């Protein structure tokens, strides 16, 4: 008779764990199964207490209102502090979570300042392999940190051949890959590695774990959720967006962290995180750099993007200011007046010609990217085609592109730039030509593959 399934009362970075095979139900949102057994992605992230039910048993997870930190950990003993900030007088339970479930518990006593000592079982602490444990507060979404238990040998000497690398992306599976930007990003990067004579593989989420192909090094293109790493391999992260989704404890798991922002890389270094390097996004020079400039361009800006369930600012401004727009993207039905939407999607291979056919390319950023200096990949792709670009102001733009890309932060200036570009495109095309030189000279996936390959080789050589 199989053991009953149990809920692990911890929501770790949006991921819920279950011990057993049964699927949980939620009082709000949905639990999407992940490739790792017993793991579910909760969407959307709860803002109020969430009740999780499994086999007629329920637990409540409260988001927010918790604090704590890990202290020294050695010899199978983990110490730290944990506290319920909304009820500071009560004791709380601390959990150690491994891949298979909870391996240890401890009580953080309020009367002792929330201190706890968590003793790991010998089967975990003295195992001849390393296990990465997540330490968190039961009934919460608060992860105190992560620790490694066990004693794995890790000896990286000079390799007789280049370490074998696999790229992990957040695309759910190959069937959905054409709809995900991460998939096209990784495919272009993999092709650049091939041109270096360094074949690599790309894994969607459903193939992150359990792969039998040789794998010495892993490059995680950090997306919506973290990847469970094997500390016996070389582990690299390339953070290209959404820095608000990554905690310091996750960065600490990697041998090297590459950040697509000068500003945010400096921020991480100021926080004491080692092994952080700047690596901006890039373009596929074969795809975007090879498009022939047209004799004439459409006298309209083009915007490629889904609605994201909102009236995106630049699209809204076009409508309000009465400027023309060719829009490609999904989710716009019923949002826009007639005449703007050209198609619900456009294939990645068709983007270079689409950009180059227009007099102006519009680009915007997520708030967290804009504020932290993460330059959109579309800036590099569009510039590679020699197309003028108008974007929202983003920190760090001039450090990479100089004055070659126009910006607007309010609707009147936005409309004026569009009209000026369409009426007299010559100065805008001259700036776009300089942007193209900048991108093709230093910001292609061939440049990035060379940087990443060199980093893997240095780490492998010890």
TrEMBL record:
The keyword Transit peptide does not apply. Residues 64-85 are annotated as: Disordered. Pfam families: Glyco_trans_1_2. Residues 65-78 have a biased composition (Gly residues). Keywords: Transferase. InterPro entries: YkvP/CgeB_Glyco_trans-like. The keyword Lipid metabolism does not apply. One of its GO terms (molecular function) is transferase activity. It comes from the Bacteria. Residues 313-453 form the Spore protein YkvP/CgeB glycosyl transferase-like domain. This is Glycosyl transferase family 1. The lineage of its organism: Bacteria, Pseudomonadati, Pseudomonadota, Alphaproteobacteria, Rhodobacterales.
